[in-house]
């Protein structure tokens, strides 16, 4: 099964290993599975905030 991949160079999503927009290698980018117990919610929110802050500044 294919997994969604992310190109950090041009900020696009694809299923390919090589980005069709810029030609750079893509990374697997899948969110953590949700659980109603949510034992790692603090870390998930912290990582998401850091990611958004990093990409908004560009």
Automatic annotation (TrEMBL):
Give the Pfam families listed for this entry. Nop10p
BP terms from Gene Ontology: pseudouridine synthesis; rRNA processing
NAD recorded as keyword: no
The alphabetical list of record keywords is: Ribonucleoprotein, Ribosome biogenesis, rRNA processing
Q: Which molecular function term from Gene Ontology is one that the record holds?
A: snoRNA binding
Question: At the top level of its lineage, which domain of life is listed?
Answer: Archaea
**Which GO CC terms are listed, alphabetically?**
ribonucleoprotein complex
Task: Tell me if rRNA processing is a UniProt keyword of this record.
Answer: yes
Tell me which family the UniProt entry assigns to this protein. Answer: Belongs to the NOP10 family.
* This protein's name: H/ACA RNA-protein complex component Nop10p
Native organism is Candidatus Parvarchaeum acidiphilum ARMAN-4
